[in-house]
Amino acid sequence: MPLQPTLKTDVLSPHDLSLIDRYWRAANYLSVGQIYLLDNPLLKTPLAAEQVKPRLLGHWGTTPGLNFIYAHLNRIIKARDADVIYICGPGHGGPGIVANTYLEGSYSEIYPEIGEDEEGMRRLFKQFSFPGGIPSHVAAETPGSIHEGGELGYALVHAYGAAFDNPGLVVACVVGDGEAETGPLAAAWHSNKFLNPAHDGAVLPILHLNGYKIANPTVLARLPDEELQQLFSGYGYEPIFVEGSDPADMHQQMAAAFDYAFDHIAAIQAIARSQGDAVTRPRWPMIVLRSPKGWTGPKEVDGKKVEGFWRSHQVPVAECRKDAGHRQILEDWMRSYRPEELFDEKGGLIAELKALAPRGSRRMGANPHANGGQLRRELKLPDIRDHAVKVGRRGGEMVQSTKVLGGYLRDALTLNEASANFRIFGPDETESNRLGDVFAVTDRVWMADLEPYDEHLARRGRVMEVLSEHLCQGWLEGYLLTGRHGLFSCYEAFIHIVDSMFNQHAKWLKVSRGLEWRRPVSSLNYLLTSHVWRQDHNGFSHQDPGFVDLVANKTADVVRIYLPPDANTLLWAGDHCLKTYDRINVIVAGKQPEPQWLSMDEAIRHCEDGAGIWHWAGTEEPGFEPDVVMACAGDVPTMETLAAVDLLRQALPDLRIRVVNVVDLMTLQSPDQHPHGLPDALFNQLFTRDRPVIFAYHGYPYLIHRLTYKRTNHDNMHVHGFIDEGTTTTPFDMAVLNKIDRYHLALAAIERVPGLAARAKDTVDQMTAKLGEHKRYVCKHGEDMPEIQNWVWPYDKG
Amino acid sequence: MPLQPTLKTDVLSPHDLSLIDRYWRAANYLSVGQIYLLDNPLLKTPLAAEQVKPRLLGHWGTTPGLNFIYAHLNRIIKARDADVIYICGPGHGGPGIVANTYLEGSYSEIYPEIGEDEEGMRRLFKQFSFPGGIPSHVAAETPGSIHEGGELGYALVHAYGAAFDNPGLVVACVVGDGEAETGPLAAAWHSNKFLNPAHDGAVLPILHLNGYKIANPTVLARLPDEELQQLFSGYGYEPIFVEGSDPADMHQQMAAAFDYAFDHIAAIQAIARSQGDAVTRPRWPMIVLRSPKGWTGPKEVDGKKVEGFWRSHQVPVAECRKDAGHRQILEDWMRSYRPEELFDEKGGLIAELKALAPRGSRRMGANPHANGGQLRRELKLPDIRDHAVKVGRRGGEMVQSTKVLGGYLRDALTLNEASANFRIFGPDETESNRLGDVFAVTDRVWMADLEPYDEHLARRGRVMEVLSEHLCQGWLEGYLLTGRHGLFSCYEAFIHIVDSMFNQHAKWLKVSRGLEWRRPVSSLNYLLTSHVWRQDHNGFSHQDPGFVDLVANKTADVVRIYLPPDANTLLWAGDHCLKTYDRINVIVAGKQPEPQWLSMDEAIRHCEDGAGIWHWAGTEEPGFEPDVVMACAGDVPTMETLAAVDLLRQALPDLRIRVVNVVDLMTLQSPDQHPHGLPDALFNQLFTRDRPVIFAYHGYPYLIHRLTYKRTNHDNMHVHGFIDEGTTTTPFDMAVLNKIDRYHLALAAIERVPGLAARAKDTVDQMTAKLGEHKRYVCKHGEDMPEIQNWVWPYDKG
């Protein structure tokens, strides 16, 4: 196999070459200016100390390469009227993307105070990494971006998410060679097995072999081209190498590489589209750009190698205020771009350079795909009442809640099929999580080989499955940020794999909500199932309900957590979350058969309240405070709480019991901490001011303490939850191990109601004996006692 | 390039072939028995319904392949007296590894109640996935394992961690093709750029193309061999393909492939070792095993394809108690292995098969590397007093705490150089995190290309840097679990990338601590630096202190969190953590110049107490309770607290202030929740029973509420911490944005001391004005006001 396709060497005429080089120099000049200058943006006078920022912050090393790519993308967009967005993996090269959107005019349109003149340029420079200004990285504030790039690893997976169902779009994705060492990025190359050339857009990866990280070379940059060629061919791409440091030569190479890549993308798409659908998996082009780190910057500073080495990573020449010699290096460096050839007297980009940028929404800083809310259309959603479970007798029939949701999702997929703007993502778990009804109307996308006996696997489909939570999360983020809708269903324990991606998306939403020009995007919706209490096949490694603890740390406006106790409440939660925007919604619900409690009307009312008293379950008397509040959140805790109430009602018929169920966990927090927080008066009406609350909670018990610490009765909250006692055992034994089973809950109630323990000694002894009997039984028979398996809420005769 | 090396076809004589096939059948038989049978282990009578488990749990699909590999590894270990451990990526194939360790005798040595006879076999079967028995996955309970395999992605990185500094060891690592889709696994292939053939052992990856996940094919299994060959050549390996389903043919292929691989490993090592060190990076062999999922199991059940399809993933034929037809399929299946040719009447493996297993510690279930505590030697550690910072005047000089620790680590590396059992791991951040002094005595390991201008990059070294937190964490886990020591230094925000790996390691430790035969291993030590308060270059995306919230969820015995406020306390914490075992220690400390507070003697006393009153900072009078407690945890919060105390002392000289500093965060928790929890009486002595506590905490404030919710004075804890307000700004402005700066802390004290606000109105106005002045100043000048930058604790004239 030849190392790479033969490229033209004269794509650019001498004049065009000169123009594109000047455009690149302008971007480089503006990038350096942002890192260094407070004033004197056009260097009309020699650079004075006080014109240099007191704190020099930012990253130069990657920036000239990013600018180089941007300039060449501009060329090809203009030449072909191409629809392109730019994903900047090395997001710390923020000055580069800011500089380019400023040059093309999109920056000043969004931020008119940063005008296209000398004063605007001064402000552009000053604001960068400056208090009250803009962050150093590509971020929500940056026009044309859907990708922060602060935490590395997700550029390529975001790019693919943006390309799905966007057949006219080319997503140019710069992958830094540092980022390329991360796991999520290494897996993301295989996304090409899920991209359909007939119905999706294209991703053009540009691996930037910049050579160095903070203080090390990068692995890929220190491999021979032959090995890189094998690696990326093995990943299913056709790599095109662009290598060198001489600008003129590099411009010709890059122009030819882009021509080749865009030609090939067009050819791949034309073939697939002429056939009606993709028959085979194409070998998509990608570019490997090997250029010096800190290209065009100072070669050496204080006798040490800077350009082409890791010392150019951040600020290549420091202390330019105090050190006149360093300041001279800076000034010489900036003047080496010959600003007088780039900007006019007033600071505007000269006209023949300005003409190089695309126009209007073809500018990458103004492309609506990168401000997806502009393109977002509401989902058409079925009526949840059409999917409601009929609850004849409370707790009387066992239903798989997620299966009911699956039917709803099936209809949602049908309603939006024509819009092609809704996908379901999951790590090989759609069927396992009982959402399989969706396969009545769609398939899993699969561009690798197909076999005749495959089921629901096709070139086209709205379900995306790959055994990588990183890819599921990243694809969905890219899909949402470009204006579409989705749901991520995942085993509860393994959603921790994407903790950090969740963090970054929450940060993105927090910032973008504050930017008027960023239109709202659909919420990121998690359905966490196969949860901690029902890992019958898998045990301890699959038991972890702690993701919501992380979620609860985040800015209140952005996060919601729902714990529907049955199918109808789950329907409400799923439907509600799909209608929201600019949020992260977490729904935790089991997939195993479980008792159903609320009719659809009741479920809607209960969910809208977020938390409420289940009067039908308790034994309160009008005019009296209850003796004990049995609270619950989550499906298994709700069932065990009701079973505990049953035990208490039988043993202690005069005990006044209140049952409170919490669906929306954020109702527990104080209203000054979360918009869903119940007012204190209402909270006290539910949980009383002074009665013991036995709270059975789905996850780690500390979260309930943390959410309620400001509440009047918080000293009297006795929370039972997962305390890290897990293994492969029976469902009820898991509850017993963690003391969240009916016996422990009933015993806790007896212990906490003043004076009751003495009176109920026999009951206590019987329940304690039951726990022993249970343990002996399961260890002998391997299943739960019949009285546990067959327990039904006995007070509701339908 | 030829697709693969030419392999012999007649490695096994017909007799040897028959023997190894019978050994494999024995393992398969025992695997099926574990999933299905309660009794009648040798099938001496027709299988009765009640002899089948009531709940059928476990995973058959991957198991026959795992057994196949195990049998062939046994052959090669015996043939070459090789030192081999087995890492089982598809850990849900637990029955296979349990079956094999039982066959080789190591299982019964560790668990004598599971004897090598019929009764032992009955117990072996019953205990699997059974209450009171063993988990379904390979886990800490499984002899020979250092890898759980429940959460997929880490097999290969664990394998490399085990191989470092173990020159005699071959780590055979089975990578499932499901797992191979994950990010961490995709990145881990590049670990071969960090493995030195002269000084390290070898990793032999065995990619098991089993074909399917739960309900989907796998990506890699659906690629043509040519593309796989390119991919793994690109990753730097020489793939050897073993493909088919006919057992006899597959045995010959596998035997030849192992011969070839072990020959090549030996040759690579011999060359490097004869040269004294590795000169070039070798191309290590790997095996690609393509075999049917559920191999040798039922071909079809109820007319549906099972063998060679995803339906064989878990339990291929269900309901065998109730459904006699299914039970017959099960019985036929088990009898197809001809147990009468494998086990004698008493249930023992017949002698000529028993002779196939290696002996003693060469058995993979008894290899001491997989019970690393057996090999662990204590680290030799320098005296922290030799590295102490002299604190002439409290707060009077600015020191980079992590740099001081770097000097200590340098000496620790020197002391243990000969033992070759201590490494430092980090994602390209050792220098950035100011630990660069270690490079005086060692280098970064690098097996990719070297350039003459590289610095501290060499074929050999004790610092491992790669831009993947997953690889750092996984290598370290593998290194620790095989009996060595290490430290992982990481940017605080990005440690969330390995949240889930931390979870799984904590689970492993929790379980292994309860197993007498598992010897303690060294603790996993994190140094989290470049923390939330000093992300001057990076801003919001790099600001997240929430990892410790996750840590605090875990079993108390396993986790510790330290927040040293200065260099001497950091030295104590680092030294202490390196001496502990079977724990996960998290140290959070800044890398920027910061004031120093405690002499070494004071630091030792303070750290041993975990929390204490800083009498020199407060204004208490003997015999009086303080008016307010100013508490702090973390370096920046401590500095801001002392600055707040300074403001209060100047403005309100008669206010009785107590300063409490917390180093060991777990002292806050109640002693019944954590072994380090202070007794209530002592806690009350520090924090009072009723005085306001203004608590400046490094991370999310909720954690302090959660840890202290059982304490008497918890209603009076007013916690200031990170509330997700972040960006690129000055260090002091970051504190102000999150209200943890000196002014907000002092204002909070004034607000909370009864009656003080009215009396101190002028002070409140002045401080409020200062906050406004600050904001104006930083937005104009881009740096903090001189009075902030130059503030020094004024009460200690040293």
Automatic annotation (TrEMBL), chains A, B:
Residues 591-793 form the Xylulose 5-phosphate/Fructose 6-phosphate phosphoketolase C-terminal domain. GO terms for molecular function: aldehyde-lyase activity. Residues 13-374 form the Xylulose 5-phosphate/Fructose 6-phosphate phosphoketolase N-terminal domain. Its cofactor is thiamine diphosphate. Keywords: Lyase, Thiamine pyrophosphate. InterPro entries: Phosphoketolase, THDP-binding, Transketo_C/PFOR_II, Xul5P/Fru6P_PKetolase, Xul5P/Fru6P_PKetolase_C, Xul5P/Fru6P_PKetolase_CS, Xul5P/Fru6P_PKetolase_N, Xul5P/Fru6P_PKetolase_ThDP_BS. Pfam families: XFP, XFP_C, XFP_N. Its EC number is 4.1.2.-. It is an enzyme of class 4 (lyase). It comes from the Bacteria. One of its GO terms (biological process) is carbohydrate metabolic process. HAMAP family: Phosphoketolase (MF_01403). Belongs to the XFP family. This is Probable phosphoketolase. It comes from Metarhizobium album. The lineage of its organism: Bacteria, Pseudomonadati, Pseudomonadota, Alphaproteobacteria, Hyphomicrobiales.
